[in-house]
Amino acid sequence: MALKSGRKLQPSSSRRPQIFKNPKAAFGLALIFMDALLVALIIAYVPYTKIDWDAYMSQVTGFLGGERDYTNLKGDTGPLVYPAGFLYIYSAIRFITGGEVYPAQILFGILYSINLSIVIFIYVKTEVLPWWALILLSLSKRVHSIFVLRLFNDCFAMTLLHAALATLLYQKWHLGLILFSGAVSIKMNVLLYAPPLLLLMMKAMNIYGVISALACAALVQILVGLPFLVSHPVAYISGAFNLGRVFIHFWSVNFKFIPEPVFVSKQFAISLLIAHLGLLAAFAHYKWCRHEGGLFKFLHSKVISALSSSSSSGLKILKEEYIMTTLFAGNFIGIVCARSLHYQFYSWYFYSLPYLLWKTHFPTLLRLILFVGVEFCWNVYPSNIYSSALLLCLHLLILWGLWSAQSQYPYDGHDSEDPKQSTADMTAFVQRLLQQMGRGSGNLTWGRNRHTPLSFMQRRLLLLVAIFVISVGFFSFLDFNALDEMGNRVDDLEKSIDELRAEMGVEGSPSPLAPSKVMTEEGSA
C-alpha cells in the first residue's frame, strides 16, 4: 500500500507548472505581483505631476479633427515631434479614458506590469543575473514616476521594444523587426538599437533575409505614416524624424556641467556623433565580431557570400546571451554619447542596466554601488553640474567594464550553417588534437614504416574523435534533416585527417574514423 501511495504522489509532482521548477522564474513572478501592488499604492496616494499630458491631448485632438499637416499639430510644449504611431496610441487612450488622468494612470500601471513581465522574461531566459538581483528592476523611483505619474510616450515605445527583443531570443527576426519598427513609430530613440540589431541580422541571416526583414520594418513605417505621407510628406518626415533637435540646457541630466553656449553648439553635437560612431565601430570590430576576425573581415565575408551563387540559405542560431549583450551595449553607447538626457529618457536604458553591470568583470559590491549611483543621479532635481558629471563618470566606468569583459562566442551549436564550414571547423578541431598529442607524447611518432600497437595517446585521440563525431551526429539527428549531410561531413573529415597526416608524415597510421581497420591491425600486431 505504501508503494502504491508513493506512485500516486509522483505524477502530481510532475504536473507542477514548469515555472515553479525554476526558482528565478518563481521569484520573478512574485516580484511582478508585489510591484503591481506598489504601483497601485503610488496611483492611489502620490499626486500626479502634469507635464506633457495636456500637450498630448491637444495634438491628438487636432489629429482626430482631420488635421494631417504635422506643422499644425501643436500643444502646450510646442509642435508634434513624434512619429504617427504616437498619435494612434494616444487617440486610443483618449477614447478609453475620455482624456481623464486617473483612468489613464490605471492604464499605464497595467502597461508597467506588462513591460516588467517582458523584461523579467528576458532576464530569466538569458540567465545572466542571480535570482536575487532581479529585484533591482523594481527599485527605481524615477521609472515608476515616468510610467504612472508622468504618462510619457516613452513607456509604450520601450514596452514594444522589449517585446521585440523577446522575439529575437527565439530567432524570429522578421517579427522582431516589425515590432521594432512599431516602437520606432512611437518614439525615435528606439533607433539607438538599430546598429547592433543590423549586425546581429547579418550574422544570423544571408543578405536576402536581411533585406526582407528591413523591408518589413520599412513597410510598417509607410503604413503608419500613410495618412501624412499622402497629404504632407515633407512636413511629416521633417517633424517626426528630426535628427537636429536642440534640447534645452536646463533639462539636461547628463551634460549640465557643460556651459550652455557649448551645449547648444553644432561642434559639440558633431563631436558626440563622432564619438558615438567611433565607439560603435570599436565594439563591433574588437568585441562583437572578434570571432569572425574583426568587423571588416566579417563584412568582406558577407559581401563574398552575397556575390557567390552557393551562399548558405540557412539561418545561423545566435546565442541568446550574445543577442541581448550586443543590443543592450549598443544602446548604452548611444546613451553615453547623447547630447541631452531628460528625466523620462532614463526608461531608455534602465531595464538593461542590471544586465550590463553583470556582464562586466566588476565585483558584485561595485555593481550595486554603480546601480545606486546612477539611480541617485537621475533623482536629483533639478540636475546640477555635480550630479551630471557624476552620471557621466558612472556611465564611462560601466562602458569600460563592458569593453574589458571577455568577448562571447556568438553562435549556438545547433545552427544550420554551411556544411563546408562545419567540416572545416571539425578539421581544425582534429588538427589541434594532433598537435597537442605530438607535444604531449615526447618520443611517440606515427611513422609509415612502424606497425606498433596503439599507444595510450593514440587511444585517447580515437576516443575524443569518436565522442566528437557521435555528438555532432546526435545533434544533427535532432534536426531530422541532416542525416545525409552528416555522412558527407564524416567523409570529408576523414579525407581532411588523411591530408593532415600526409603533411605531418604519418600516412601509414590507421584512420581514427575507421575502427574496423584499427581493430584488424591491432590484432595482427
From TrEMBL:
Protein name: dolichyl-P-Man:Man5GlcNAc2-PP-dolichol alpha-1,3-mannosyltransferase
InterPro entries the record matches: Glycosyltransferase_ALG3
Chain positions covered by the region annotation Disordered: 504-525
Keyword hit for Endoplasmic reticulum: yes
E.C. no: 2.4.1.258
Main localization category: endoplasmic reticulum
Native source species: Salix dunnii
UniProt entry keywords in alphabetical sequence: Endoplasmic reticulum, Glycosyltransferase, Membrane, Transferase, Transmembrane, Transmembrane helix
Pathway in which the depicted protein is active: Protein modification; protein glycosylation
One of the record's GO molecular function terms: dol-P-Man:Man(5)GlcNAc(2)-PP-Dol alpha-1,3-mannosyltransferase activity
Recorded catalytic activity of this chain's protein: an alpha-D-Man-(1->2)-alpha-D-Man-(1->2)-alpha-D-Man-(1->3)-[alpha-D-Man-(1->6)]-beta-D-Man-(1->4)-beta-D-GlcNAc-(1->4)-alpha-D-GlcNAc-diphospho-di-trans,poly-cis-dolichol + a di-trans,poly-cis-dolichyl beta-D-mannosyl phosphate = an alpha-D-Man-(1->2)-alpha-D-Man-(1->2)-alpha-D-Man-(1->3)-[alpha-D-Man-(1->3)-alpha-D-Man-(1->6)]-beta-D-Man-(1->4)-beta-D-GlcNAc-(1->4)-alpha-D-GlcNAc-diphospho-di-trans,poly-cis-dolichol + a di-trans,poly-cis-dolichyl phosphate + H(+)
Superkingdom of origin: Eukaryota
Entry's localization field: Endoplasmic reticulum membrane
Residue spans crossing the bilayer: 25-48, 104-124, 144-170, 177-195, 207-229, 234-253, 268-288, 322-341, 385-403, 461-480
Record-level GO cellular component terms: endoplasmic reticulum membrane
Membrane topology: Multi-pass membrane protein
The protein's enzyme class: transferase
